[in-house]
Amino acid sequence: MKRRVVVTGLGAITPVGKNVEQTWESLLAGRSGIGRITRFDPSEFTSQIAGEIKDFDPQEYLDRKEARRMDRFTQLGVAASLQAFEDAGLSRDKLKAERVGVIIGAGIGGMDTLHDQFSTYFQKGPSRVSPFFVPMMIPDMAAGQISIALGAKGPNYATVSACASGSHAIGAAFRQIQQGVADVMICGGAEAAVSPLALAGFCAARSLSTRNDEPEKASRPFDAERDGFVMGEGTGILILEELEHALSRGARILCEVVGYGATADAYHVTAPAPDGNGAARAIKLALEDAGIDGSQVDYINAHGTGTRLNDAIETKAIKEALGDVKNLAVSSIKSMIGHLLGAAGGVEGVATVLTVYHGIIPPTINCENPDPECDLDYVPEGARKCEVRYALSNSFGFGGHNAVIAFKKYEG
Fold this sequence. Notes:
Elements: E1 5-13, H1 20-29, E2 34-36, E3 49-51, H2 64-68, H3 72-87, E4 100-105, H4 111-124, H5 133-137, H6 141-150, E5 156-159, H7 165-178, E6 184-191, H8 196-204, E7 234-242, H9 243-248, E8 255-264, H10 277-290, E9 299-301, H11 308-322, E10 329-331, H12 334-337, H13 344-358, E11 360-361, E12 384-385, E13 390-397, E14 401-408
Parallel strand pairs: 4-5, 4-6, 9-10, 9-13
Antiparallel strand pairs: 1-7, 1-8, 2-3, 6-7, 8-14, 11-12, 13-14
Helix pairs in contact: 3-6, 7-13, 10-11
């Protein structure tokens, strides 16, 4: 018999909040965190806007020496994991370290470090490259540093599947507990790729919105005037726990994780399959794993990037997978925080858990002009109060990676 898995803690640092409470409040208020890039001069780029975190001080969580030896994405991941660990009421002294694991997704990894050390190499030569270059850059280092910070000695690795990385991490962590390998898993995603090199790459691929004069209006999932996604940075971390383990220590239970589906499009390196079959199959697998049918799903936290292809194809996939969508609400928080790449599934997982727990659906802002190909209920009018018993979190990444997590209201 599969063991039941619940969520007992959350951590987040996003363009709209330095913790879960601030982020959730901003999302419900429909507050945008998109603005002109301030970390470097973006004037030479076609897209000059992003969802930046402007008030993060790693020394609130790490000593100065530790922080200097971590890339920004790792600093964010460690900080949010410490938040989540505290939120769950966990104590290192009362846990069996070998039964606590960490799986953190990162689509790109240490892009700031790569950019800086690449410049150092060409300007000053190989002898001046930092000995910490590789361990700061590689995408698994958030998971590694989190395990060190919290003494977690169970399963430990990174998922690297572009924009599906965070959701794959949650799904993989869910399986570790289901199958009896671990009792507690720290999972989610961390990304900090708002750097000149990454921005140049996405601009060259024409993936980004160029609505530079109206940054708060630029991320427009499902809107007829959408023109690309907006880059963002941040982290979202969940504490998953085996149900009996959580109950035995009197933990607050936020919701239950009940399903996970993962597929591939096997179609194109960046574009989703036109028929939406890969995404639809991932949704169906998550439903099958949860033991429910599409009519029972109340809400989907959509991938909803604001690109021409993704939004229309995701809409098609949702209708194919669920069938009856007349009572279904769908929203994309990327409209407010931008696309956090490998961290997107982590932050969106946090938002989906809170939606189930509080019974409030965050809106899709900037969805003002109906697109005939995007004809679902995207909650454009503002946050909506309603009971959400089952919810899905969708993530689809470059390379044709699809991951869907099914959450359920905890009912004992």
